[in-house]
Amino acid sequence: MTHLTALTDTFTLTNGVVMPIVGFGTTATTTPASVVAALVAGYRQLELTPGSEGAVVAGLQTAGVARADLFITVQLEVDVTSPVPAAIAATLEALHTDYLDLALLPAAAATSTLGAAWQALETALAAGKVRAIGLADFQPDQIAALAQTALVPPMVNQLRLNPTDQQPAAVAASKTAHMVVAAYSTLAAGALLTLKPLRKMAARYQRTPAQLVLRWALQHDYLPLPRAQAPAHIQENAQLFDFELSFHDMQVLDALQGRSVTPKRSK
Fold first, then answer.
1. Backbone φ/ψ region at 145: left (φ over 0), alpha (ψ -120 to 50), beta
2. What's the rounded mean pLDDT across residues 184-196?
3. Cα 266–chain centre separation
4. Would the pLDDT of 1 be above 60?
5. Beta carbons within 8 Å of 126's beta carbon, 6+ residues apart
6. Which residues contact 242 (CB under 8 A, 6 or more apart)?
7. Strands 156-160 and 102-106, bridge-based pairing
8. Given this model, what pLDDT does residue 265 score?
9. CA atoms within 13 A of residue 253's CA, in its CB half-sphere
10. Which end of the chain has fewer CB atoms < 10 Å from its terminal CB, N or C?
């Protein structure tokens, strides 16, 4: 991807829906203040995980950003006691909204009921409860299995992706199926940030290691979903559009594939 200029640049999904090319990732420990800081920094895609809804609602109320100006992505909390329709209804109620921009079906929740779960997402899409539907952590065999019965192909696959964990088979299968690849854990919970090759490169670019890794994701046409709590880190993670990694430096980062790293406190 070239000519990236801002957090509000977009990918266009296969059904024509556009989504910002970077999202702000949330967790159960995300605070309303962090959500406000992300919106102030320019993020307009919020990626929610179960437990973060209250902080997101409170942050949106404080920031005063209109719902129509946001792209809300939700990984559904689906199990045998909470099938897809119930999970969507609960999420809509928790967020005080009548639609989600993107609903993701997690692979771990769909192993035995994949066809029925995806059909329920297709129904929600047709009813306008969601604007786009996708997957989380689906591997090539699961993508192939879904393709046998899906009437609406998935539009996104969200994967754990960073220079040390690149999942080439899952990425290739996703892109072949015309899905946008979203990247979570891009900083490996902060573990990447102490690697010597990355720190040396960051000093040369006069950037932080986090910025280089997020830029690496963008230049691979991934949609990074950085998480942070401190306003300074949130702002830092948004400053990705006034520099570009060289072809050689992309290769250096790609060569970190398989490198063992130890997770640290989330950045």
1. alpha
2. 84
3. 16
4. no
5. none
6. none
7. unpaired
8. 45
9. 29
10. N
CA atoms within 13 A on the CB side of 198: 26
Q: What pLDDT does residue 6 have? A: 79
Which regions of the chain does DSSP assign to beta strands (E)? 10-12, 18-20, 24-25, 45-48, 71-75, 102-106, 133-136, 156-160, 180-184, 222-224
Average pLDDT for residues 79-105, to the nearest whole number? Answer: 89
Retrieve residue 35's tokens.
């959500």
> Which residues are CB-contacts of 79 (< 8 A; sequence separation ≥ 6)?
109
How many Å apart are CA 221 and CA 236, to the nearest integer? 20
For residue 18, the SS3 value is strand
Q: What is the DSSP string of 53-91?
A: HHHHHHHHHHHT--GGG-EEEEE---BTTB-HHHHHHHH
Structure tokens at 249: 């430096």
The confidence score (pLDDT) of residue 77 equals: 83
The distance of Cα 245 from the centroid of its chain, to the nearest Å, equals: 21
What pLDDT does residue 193 have?
Answer: 84
pTM for this predicted structure: 0.91
Residue 263 confidence (pLDDT) above 80: no
Q: ∠ CA 82-89-42 to the nearest 5 degrees?
A: 115
Residues 6+ apart with CB under 8 A from 147: 153, 177
User: What percent of the chain is predicted at pLDDT more than 90?
Assistant: 74
Please list the alpha-helical segments (H only) found in 78-179: 84-95, 114-126, 140-147, 168-176
Ramachandran angles phi, psi of 183, nearest 5°: -115, 115
pLDDT, position 175: 96
Can you read off the two tokens belonging to residue 108?
């771990």
When pLDDT is averaged across residues 141-170 and rounded to a whole number, the result is: 95
